[in-house]
Amino acid sequence: MTGTTAETVTPHREADVVAQAPKQLFIDGQWVDARGGRTLDVVDPSTGEVLCAVADASEEDGWDALKAAERAQADLAALPPRKRSDILMRTFELIHERIDDLALLMTLEMGKPLAEAKGEVAYAAEFFRHFAEEATRIDGGYQTAPAGGSRFLVTRQPVGPSILITPWNFPLAMGARKIGPAIAAGCTSVTKPAAQTPLSMLALGEILSEAGAPAGSVNILATSTSGKVMEPLIRSGIARKLSFTGSTSVGRKLLEQCADRVLRTSMELGGNAAFVVFEDADLDKAVDGAMLAKMRNSGEACTAANRIFVHRSVIEEFGRRLTERMSELTVGRGVDDGVKVGPMIDANQRDKVDELVQDAISGGARVLTGAEALDGGGFFYRPTVLTDVPESARMRDEEIFGPVAALTPFDSEEEVVAAVNSTEYGLVNYVYTESLRRGLRVAESVESGMVGLNQGVVSNPAAPFGGVKESGLGREGGPTGIDEFLETKLIGIAMD
Ligand code: NAP
Predict the structure, then answer these.
(1) Where is each Aldehyde dehydrogenase domain found (predicted)?
(2) Active-site positions?
(3) Does residue 440 carry a pLDDT above 80?
(4) Ligand 1 atom closest to residue 222's alpha carbon, by position in its atom list
(5) pLDDT tens-digit series, residues 155-187
(6) What does the pLDDT average to over 117-135?
(7) Closest Cα to atom 21, ligand 1: which residue?
(8) 160 CA distance to ligand 1 centroid (A)?
(9) What is the pTM of this model?
(10) What pLDDT was estimated at residue 376?
(11) What number of other Cβ atoms are within 10 A of residue 86's Cβ?
(12) What is the distance between the alpha carbons of residues 408 and 390, in angstroms, rounded to a whole number?
């Protein structure tokens, strides 16, 4: 293991980490090339240059992976919970042993600053430890029927082979959050990471294999034709579950495909988080929280504060402090020392961010800082603060997914709660106030699966993560995360 801090990353070390990363498909415990030999390029978003090529799965490869998962299902389900737990705990340990290499690989393929990549790797590892502990605690029940006589024996069984589809913005953690509970519950899986960031998940496949995951229990494939490869597998009925993290538009399409065979689904979809600062908030803490909620992952997070509502009496001061902090951020390659904001994932995403910013400005928003793309080979956007963002601006409804803080004043609690809820999304909202009574009242009134009360980050492997409305179905992590991969079975017992 090599110690990596931003100062020690040399071009040679970057090349070395990429050279050592697995680049084939992981199917039935084997590393294989795509049938037909297709490959897809992985691009470093901080330079726009190709990092490497990885195997590009065809429909046949998809079938191979799903059939391997089907064959391995009975054995994985029969593996004692303690053994499944041991695989997960060993995975946790191996991830930590390789944290520096995994973080560097992630920074290279996705762009986030190295310190944040390291944070994500540790966060991903934690899902394996959490579910290692949950694997041995799958419980059931025994109950006398209300009318007496018979008994209810309730047991829980794995759902079966599962298809897991993950986005590019958290290349390792979103997969860990699914594979961890799947193994804990005894479900085999086929994971498809986003084509833009396959390297982190493929590296996880290598670790899971070393940790003792039985052949076929975990299959991982990258493909440039995700719809073509995945749709027949989803519609086949061989898989019994789809767990998806990504945009609401793709999630909707996949839900339709799942309807064919009535698959169990978990859907972690898009967000449009509001960040509300009341007049009695501790402004220093609120600015710290907004920096986290907005700038974590360079703004490319489903939990990112998309709409920042600040009480009219403090918006000027809040805007001044936030602008100071945002304009101090160093933008650059995530491997470079001191960089706090990496590139957008690609040119399309950078251009979309600019389009939303220009749209808000044309509707009357004022620029406090930023509001421009940066020149050069990478896909950089300058950290931006806009104020007086009007209700008509597209960014009030659409995910910005970039380093843009959009401030709007409000006058009353009633008005702001209505504004927070005027979106089809419902993933997370943030509330800053020193009044516990108001904090809880607002937390209960806003329509979202999660609320950060005086805190700018809510994700934790030990807590249930997920949204309501069009932000999704189901919860990942926490004590209930494993339930997504378990069926409840009733055995009714006659006693007379
Ligand atoms: P996306 O375009 O929906 O893609 C997500 C995944 O779905 C990728 O692996 C993608 O593969 C795949 N995909 C796309 N079309 C597909 C199809 N027809 N059939 C099967 N798979 C398909 O989302 P993204 O741009 O990668 O990620 C950003 C979105 O994810 C944002 O909306 C964000 O809010 C959301 N997100 C939500 C959470 C949460 O927990 N709620 C967490 C993180 C991100 P390819 O790209 O390779 O085609």
Answers:
(1) 31-490
(2) 268
(3) yes
(4) 47
(5) 999 999 999 999 999 999 999 999 999 999 999
(6) 98
(7) 226
(8) 23
(9) 0.97
(10) 83
(11) 17
(12) 7
